[in-house]
Amino acid sequence: MISKEFHASRRALYRELLEENSVGFVFSGQEKEDRGDQMFSFTPYANFYYLTGFDQPKAVFVASKIMGVYREVLYIDHPDEMKARWQGISYDKESVKEETGIAQVEYLERFEEKLPFFSGRNVIEHLYVDIANWEDGFSRNQAQCFADKVLSCYPYLKVHNTFQDLAHMRQVEEPEEIALHRRACEITTEGVKNILAHLRPGMKEYEIEAYFDFTLKSNHARHAFSTIAASGKNACVLHYVANDRTMEEGDLILFDLGAEWGLYASDVSRTFPVGGRFTEQQKQLYNVVLKGLDAAIARTKPGQPKNELQEISKSVMAEELIRLGMIEKPEEISRYYFHSSGHYIGLYTHDVGDDRAVLEPNMMFTLEPGLYFEELGIGIRIEDTILVTENGCEVLSAGIPKTVEEIEKFMQEHRKPSEEAF
Question: What class does CATH assign to 4-170?
């Protein structure tokens, strides 16, 4: 969904990372088996996709800068007849050249024989590998295994990890990327409104979740992450995923959800009254969180250190809880507030980026303060997807009801009859 010119511009930046007499590698990743003869849905490694626009597994992007000559090669798997017949996967070198704009495309069976180490006559001094290890401990991923293999033969090479360099590139987004985020937020908005129109006591959490799922499927969108639909005390479990409780009159339900469009994510949290109206206590506590969010949004503009937004929300919420008599000192908010107030968003929902960075136009992240009162059976989180603009910010999820008055009004005016299906 992004133009090949966009990806070419990213490769031009990658080229500048490479020193003379060097070669760089970025891997797309491997498919993973689900069960039996099924595979999990494949999503390419974000930095690989960012550079190439190619979204198939087993591919490798190779760039070399040797004696003043720069070359790019994309190595791809060779789909066999069975994949074409059973899964509809069919592409070749020529179609991939056209799709990506990368002039040289080769099949993987020629990968090792074409590596520049074998023809460089010891002129190569630097090895660049993009290594992001999401696993715990000392487990190794494909990129690390490849680097080990190369160094076992060429131990004199200087190794560089390009992960942080590409993370820095992705921290400020381009207009084409922002357009995909915007569409993802539009679909998410539609999905949340579908939830609000059908939400009522007596439903299972997964039943109301299904209305969001329906909206995404109807728009040919994917989930950016697994939906949280947490009612009552379940909302105090930050990453609750069972979604199987029966909702009752008087409950609040916390949703954390988002659509993905063109591999770019949205991320929104909202907390709604299952019966259509907040109790007075729920309203008070909800407005504490909303004031924390609004205060951080008001300070979101170029020049603002990102990590200070967390403290702004926290300080405002602490003052409000003191006013309500729920705590006596600001630091006591830690009894009810357990997480940071947001994260970068991009090709990953929790995307790469420096949390200490000073905000610039076209940065994108979420703000998500929350308070959790387990003894009251109340968990409240409110989250928006934010775009930094030249003079402030734009809330891309602003179309979703957020104030107490907006939520109650929407639920009263749009609630469907209980027997109505999707």
Answer: alpha beta
Residues of the chain with CATH 3.40.350.10: 4-170
Count CA within 13 A, CB hemisphere, residue 185.
26
Q: Which CATH number fits domain 172-414: 1.20.1560.10, 1.20.120.330, 3.20.19.10, 3.90.230.10?
A: 3.90.230.10
Distances (CA, A) of 16 to 126, 165, 166: 14, 11, 12
The per-residue pLDDT for range 37-56, each reduced to its tens digit, is 677 788 999 999 999 999 99
Percent of the chain with pLDDT over 70: 93
Compute the distance between CA of residue 348 and CA of residue 77 in angstroms, rounded to an integer.
24
The angle at the Cα of 94, spanning 92 to 97, to the nearest 5 degrees, equals 110
Q: What number of CA atoms fall less than 13 Å from residue 167's CA on the CB side? A: 16
Give the integer Cα–Cα distance in Å for 422 and 419.
Answer: 10
> According to CATH, where is 3.90.230.10 located in the chain?
172-414
Residue with tokens 């136009």, as numbered in its chain: 361
Of 136, 169, 187, 222, the closest CA to residue 7 belongs to 169
> pTM score > 0.85 for this model?
yes
Question: What is the distance between the alpha carbons of residues 214 and 218, in angstroms, rounded to a whole number?
Answer: 6
Name the residue among 374, 384, 399 with its Cα closest to residue 292.
384
